Amino acid sequence: MREKKKEKRIILSALLATVVMAVTSGCGKVVFVTGLDRDELFTVGDQSGSCREMRVYLTTMENQYKEDYGEDVFTRSGNETVGDSLKENALERLVKVKALNQIASGEGVTLEETELSDARQSAGQYMDSLSDAEKKYLGISDNDAAEMLEEYRLAAKMARQMVSDVPDEVSDDEARTVTVQSILIKTYAENADGSRTEFDDGQRAEAKAKAKAIRDEIQNGMDNLLGITFDTYIAKYNEDSTSTYTIGKGEVDSAFEQAAFNQPVGTISDVIETQDGYRIIKPIATSDESQLQANKETILQKRIQEAYEKAYDSYASELDCQLNEERWNQIVLCEDPKVTTDSFFQVCAGEK
Question: Is the dihedral of CA 132, 134, 136, 140 positive or negative?
C-alpha cells in the first residue's frame, strides 16, 4: 500500500505541474470590459489578476519556448500565430490559479504557516535569480513575488484536495493490454468529405461472406502447414489503414475487445462483427510486468485528471471572468535579449 501511495503522489506531482495551465477558459463566461482598476488585467469571482503577474507568466513561458524550440520560434515562417497562442495560454494559466484561490477561499482551504514560510523563501530565491534588467521589465516587488508564489501553492493545494478521494488501486485486469494483428473487411464506404455511408443488408452479407472465406483460407493454410504468414494475408486482404493494435480495456468496441482478450496468443479468431466491419484477429503479445505497471500509472493519471476536471468545472463554471480588452491588447512578448528568466514555475513547484 505504501508503494501505491507513493505512486499516486508522483502522478499527482506530474498532474499538478499542468493542472493549473490546462487550456480552458478557467471560468464560466468571459466579458470584455474597459473599467477595471489600477493595473488589473482581469477579474474572476472576487479575485483579480494584474498586468505585472501576466508579464511574469508570459515571459517565463516565452523563454521556455525559446529554450525548447529555438530563439526564432516566434518569428520562424509558419509560426506566425504561436505568440498569440502562448499569450492566451499564459492568461488561461493565471486565470485558473486565481479561480482555484477563489474556490479555496470558499472551501476554507489555506496554506499552513510552514507552507507560507516556504513560499516566501522560494519567492526570495526567485527574486535573487533575476537580473536588474529582468526586475525592471517585470516590474514586480518582493511582496508581489511572495503573493504570486503563495497563490500558486494554494491553487495546487486546492487541486490536490479535489482529487484526494480518487482510488489509487488499479487492478491487473484493468491495466492489461494485448497486441493483435487484424484483417478488416469494411461494412461502410468512405465519402469524399470524410464521412461514411453504412452498407445495406445485402452489402453487409457479402462482406461477411468474404471475411468467412478469408478466415477459412487462413485456417486451411495453418492446418496444412503451408507456411504462409498472417502478414501475407494482411497484405492481401486487409481494408484497414492499420493492421496491428495494442488494446486496453475500453479502447475499442466491445466485440473487438472481447475477442482480443479472450483469444489465445498465436491463434486466429472466428469472424467478429465490429463497428467498422468484420475482423479476423490474431493476438501476438500480452503486456509484461513493466508494461502492466506503466499502464497502471497511465490509468491512474487519467483517473485523477478526469476527477479534477469534473470537480473544477462544478466550481468554476459559475465564476464569470472580466477581461480588460485595452490592457489585453497591450500585452506583447518580450523582445529584450537581456530578459531570459524562465524559472518561475519551477520555483512554484518547489524545484531547485
Answer: negative
